């Protein structure tokens, strides 16, 4: 088997060390005689795995003591309903939620939230750039926030559109202290963040955390206890928090793998060190894209995602040949999302810089021979 | 490491062959160069894994063509809300759901359903036997069904109480054709069933299917499309069915493991052959329990579960000594659920008869020396 590099947007590449450890422990975790998959979630072995994963994540993200770390199920799309079900009850019904529309994922959140609240799209970057589609994050000074929203929702990294918040909007004074809720599915743990600036941070695990099927919610304690009566108990954050993510049987094996990823991240020097590596990887790819007109990008430079790099061949009739030649070189899953077309290289934490170097080298060669 | 036998009620023992295959494929699935955890759910590799798992399950349970097989998240407790959210819309609001209350799990379903409908407990076996608690399944002739319920809910195997339906109730003529909805979490795939007798069959995976975090729903097609407007899209069965369980990113690795379990089941001769093995295992344990008064059971003989065998030491002051001595012999996780106390041996498909033999042998020795 030749070296392959997997640019999937998620589920995505995991650190090889993590997979090796998981394979070696598959039939017997630490002499217990059991696979982690076979352990009662209430037994001492799994309780230790869960506690370690929570503690490591708290350390990695410097999560303040007044925030709960919850492990749920249902992914980002599930949270699009679960977040309003938990938070709109903070205000008289029907409440209003403010959204910043920066791409496909915030768009999906907007659509789902309409089931539970009035929606105010306070700002949108759709079709504001040179190309159709989303090109960046609207200037916070232009956001038309409501007087008293239940919360303000942002997707701080748009996986499909390749747009990333490079700043934390300071909105409390303009929104009656409404909490900022951030969908960080596709860039959490890729850069240092100040958790205290957010009310809720959530994300599906299948990019920088671990396997699909695990959902992470980090929530400030004062935001618990406002679930609507129609909120399913298994997704009521207060119930989940009171039961330490064990109200229903948690996705135990996924939590175990996430815990191995957290330990790998600590060995890499933590999130700050990872951020430097991610900057280097992203610069390598964007610098090349900026140096050629064979490939084009849509996103304004200051809003480019370090994790998801969409690009187009100027001559899109070459798309199929590009993908076939890339696969031949072991560069996999570069096809862009069907809704936006083109190509996309997702370069999450577990993608080594060698993978980006191989990609740039291939792209250069392809451009010269076509 | 000595041989251990894991009697956990779930997450529970998995076939060793499955774990060995998972370990060997962890870093490179079938020459793809990727772990299954790293694959895009929309790529050809995972699509093949999903299709095979669905086809094998359809074959194993002889699922008719007019039923959909859905892979979801949220477990049995999640479904306690998701089932009514999908089905009460079949009737004018507020609709009524009929429940048969046979233990802890149907009790949890009743409690959650009250958020979404009127609840009619058509029958209950609570405190009807010699000991307090649940002792069996009420005679269907005694069920006080509503004239026109949205559906009738049964839990066909009560994991905590050790009560199993040994028959399929025939209720359509008495309930205006209401569909029978069965929570089969803890005995699905352990015995032959006639899927056509049910409108919906659901269950968490973590007993006889695979890892926790995967939820199975088998639903008759005419029951799709009735979700309440407040049902989260990710849990709207019609949306999930239309997207072949890919509306949100599915728990890909758990589906892969479930697929390996399905293939193992086929190698064992399928569900009918597995049922014979399960009868033999259950008889071995119950015959011993019936032969002694050192241990006592609560459940009426005709309603005993083949999967979950709760029992009590007549002298409960010996409980701690029993558990310690069992662990010493490699017989793990025998403690009963905290809500009912005592002991419980869960003897799912993946528990070999040698494990039950070892348990009975130990129980006999313990009874003779105490």
Largest sheet of chain A: 7 strands, mixed
The top-level CATH class of the largest domain in chain A is Alpha Beta
Our Rg estimate of chain A from Cα atoms comes to 21 Å
Number of domains of chain A: 2
SS class of chain A: alpha/beta
Number of helical runs of chain A? Answer: 9
Please name the CATH topology of the largest domain in chain A. Aspartate Aminotransferase, domain 2
> Which oligomerization state do the chains in this entry correspond to?
homodimer
Q: Which regions of chain A are unreliable across 5 or more consecutive residues at pLDDT < 50?
A: none
Q: Report, as a whole number of angstroms, the end-to-end distance of chain A.
A: 28 Å
Write the CATH architecture name of the largest domain in chain A. Answer: 3-Layer(aba) Sandwich
- Name of the CATH superfamily of the largest domain in chain A: Type I PLP-dependent aspartate aminotransferase-like (Major domain)
Shape of chain A: globular
Mean pLDDT of chain A, to the nearest integer, reads: 96
How many beta-strand runs of chain A?
14
Q: Largest interface, counted with CB-CB under 8 A?
A: A-B, 68 and 68 residues
Strand content of chain A: 15-25%
Strand and helix order of chain A: EHHEHEHEEEEEEEHHHEEHEEH
Strand order in the sheet with the most strands of chain A: 2-10-9-8-5-3-4
Share of residues in helices of chain A: 25-40%
């Amino acid at each position: 088997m030749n070296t392959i590099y997997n640019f999937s947007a998620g589920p995505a590449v995991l650190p090889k060390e993590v997979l090796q450890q998981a394979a070696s422990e598959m039939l017997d975790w630490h002499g217990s005689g059991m696979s982690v998959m076979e352990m009662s979630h209430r037994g001492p072995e799994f309780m230790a795995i869960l506690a370690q994963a929570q503690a490591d994540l708290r350390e990695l993200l410097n999560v303040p003591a007044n925030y709960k770390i919850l492990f749920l199920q249902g992914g980002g799309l599930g949270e699009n309903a679960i977040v309003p079900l938990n938070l709109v009850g903070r205000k008289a019904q029907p409440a209003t939620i403010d959204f910043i529309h920066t791409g496909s994922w915030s768009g999906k959140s907007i659509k789902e939230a309409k089931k539970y609240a009035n929606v105010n799209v306070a700002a949108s970057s759709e079709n504001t750039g040179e190309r159709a589609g989303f090109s960046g994050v609207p200037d916070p000074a232009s956001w038309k926030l409501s007087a008293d929203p239940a919360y303000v929702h942002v997707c701080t990294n748009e996986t499909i559109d390749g747009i990333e918040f490079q700043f934390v909007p300071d909105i409390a004074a303009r929104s009656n202290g409404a909490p900022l809720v951030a969908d960080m599915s596709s860039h959490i743990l890729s850069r240092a963040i100040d958790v205290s600036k957010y009310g809720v941070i959530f994300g599906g695990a299948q990019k920088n955390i671990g396997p699909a099927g695990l959902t992470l919610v980090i929530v400030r304690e004062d935001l618990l206890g406002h679930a609507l009566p129609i909120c399913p108990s298994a997704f009521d954050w207060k119930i989940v928090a009171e039961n330490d993510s064990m109200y229903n049987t948690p996705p135990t094996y996924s939590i175990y793998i996430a815990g191995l990823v957290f330990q790998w991240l600590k060995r890499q020097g933590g999130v700050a060190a990872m951020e430097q590596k991610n900057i280097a990887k992203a610069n390598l790819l964007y610098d090349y894209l900026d140096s050629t007109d064979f490939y084009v990008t849509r996103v304004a430079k200051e809003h480019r995602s370090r994790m998801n790099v969409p690009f187009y061949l100027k001559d899109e009739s070459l798309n199929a040949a590009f993908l076939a030649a890339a696969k031949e070189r072991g560069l996999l899953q570069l096809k862009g999302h069907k809704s936006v077309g083109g190509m996309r290289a997702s370069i999450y934490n577990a993608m080594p810089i060698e993978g980006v170097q191989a990609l740039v080298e291939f792209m250069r060669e392809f451009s010269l021979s076509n």
